[in-house]
Amino acid sequence: MSTNGWREQKHQEVFESVLRGLERRRALDPGFELSDARNTLKHLYIQEGNDQEGRGEPAAIALASTIAAYEHFIAEWKDAGQGDSPREPSPAAKTADRGVAMSLEIRRVANLHELKAFVRFPYRIYSGDPCWVPTLDLDDLNTLRRDKNPAFETCEAEYWMAYRDGSPVGRIAGMINHPANAKWGTKLARFGWIDFVEDFAVAEALLKTVEDWARSKGLEGLHGPLGFTDFDREGMLVEGFDEVATLATNYNRPYYPQYLERLGYAKDIDWIEYQIHTPSVIPEKVLRVQELIAKRSGIHLHEWKNKKELIGKWAKDLFAILEETYAHLYGTAPLSQKQVQAYIKTYLGFVDPRFTKIVVDKEGKLIGFGITMPSLSRALQRARGRLLPLGWLHLMLALRRPTVMDMYLIAVKPEYQSRGVVAFLMTSLNQSAIDAGVKIAESNPELETNVEVQGLWKGYEKRQHKRRRIYTKKLLP
Ligand SMILES: CC(C)(COP(=O)(O)OP(=O)(O)OC[C@H]1O[C@@H](n2cnc3c(N)ncnc32)[C@H](O)[C@@H]1OP(=O)(O)O)[C@@H](O)C(=O)NCCC(=O)NCCS
């Protein structure tokens, strides 16, 4: 353990044990009241203020951690309906934060070595967590590196990490997507890749860093978590903390949104997610309607054969439809040709004819598509961010023998919407899932305002199990 690591460990141990003790007491002792906890905390403040001399560092850390645990416990109790005014960090809370954050430091990520540490930081919080799904390090690095991601032709970004006593305790990215600002008429910076240990001071310092950076660039507000584009992970989980994330989604602990709200961030918009049970048969009626549409209009499903055909013949039109149909959705911005090429290379190389469907009109022109993929959640957890030595094998097995499907993209050309084109996509995807033995599908994030896409699940057995949020804050000059 590093010379400083023991401090962090000590803090964590004491904090958790005091908190557990308080929670147990609250559960078992009907006479224990909020005022009792407050009184003890008052004494702890006095102790902390008066007894500096002669106290060893471990004792100081233990006291600060005890105070932090009491603060946390009281705030949680208050939040659970004791009718107190909204939580404000007391001067003592700040002291407690300082007690464990004496050398809290924010450092800009300045080289590839530090960027790798930035990418690996979430393992410090989530390693072994069954709900968290890591990214592949290489994917993250390719997105974050200026020399790799064509988004940098029109975007700016900086990354920072927080360290306490030399140990990493948080990370954040600040980005400016100029085409998005131009399109939506905004002057906003984005934050993303945000992770921090359960310590308000760390979250505060990280967000303040991005706020100051955004202000220095003449911007008026911040929103996030977002990526450079819609293809990066976005949104902060606010519901569904016991659900397994997907390849496309972030996982975070409940204290993240609590801290953001305490820092003045408010909801901008939410995405919701569904888990859908694969129906074991496709209703006859739906198939009959489909036949009728095909007979009358010539619209039909095109069975593409291999990746060469998909990438060579269909990819360009597919992205054109995507850009056209997704343009009204939150945060989207036009993609450059280089970005489109990069996404084609990254994503379309993995798709499988069984699980990606395309629909064409009578002239054979692409009018709609649906891209789904076997869930890689478990495989990514096993790979722990790396393809070698065995990560690739976990991913290959998951792709070959799926049990859960992830829905990624679905779109129908506007002039063909509401005409049943989507039925071809849904029924054929459904049939492939049945054939492959898939029982469950994950919708992945759908904007709460996107009623069209939610309409697709009308007749299915489903549950809405997650909700993730974009937060926003105006920056005062
Ligand atoms: C989402 C989208 C693909 C839906 O297509 P659409 O043509 O608008 O879908 P509609 O709801 O009008 O459905 C048309 C008909 O298809 C059929 N249909 C819809 N869902 C179906 C399903 N799951 N299975 C079988 N048939 C279905 C129905 O006959 C429906 O008619 P009805 O509403 O009278 O029952 C389309 O609106 C779109 O491209 N939106 C923009 C892109 C987008 O938002 N993508 C999702 C991002 S998360």
> Can you tell me the CATH architecture of the largest domain?
3-Layer(aba) Sandwich
Number of strands: 14
CATH first level of the largest domain: which class? Alpha Beta
Radius of gyration: 25 Å
Query: What share of the residues lie within helices?
Result: 40-55%
Return the structural class: alpha+beta
Query: What kind of sheet is the major sheet?
Result: 14 strands, mixed
Index terms:
single chain; 477 residues; alpha+beta; Aminopeptidase; 3 domains; 14-stranded mixed beta sheet; 17 helices; 14 strands; globular; binds coenzyme A
Describe this protein's structure.
The chain is of the alpha+beta class and 477 residues long. The protein has 3 domains: 96 residues; 166 residues, Gcn5-related N-acetyltransferase (GNAT) (Aminopeptidase); 160 residues, 3-Layer(aba) Sandwich (Aminopeptidase), CATH 3.40.630. Helix content is 44%, strand content 21%. Strands 1, 2, 3, 4, 5, 6, 7, 8, 9, 10, 11, 12, 13 and 14 form a 14-stranded mixed beta sheet that branches. Strand 2 and strand 3 form a beta hairpin. Helix 3 crosses helix 4 and helix 12 packs across helix 13. The two termini are 43 Å apart. About 5% of the residues have low confidence. The structure holds coenzyme A.
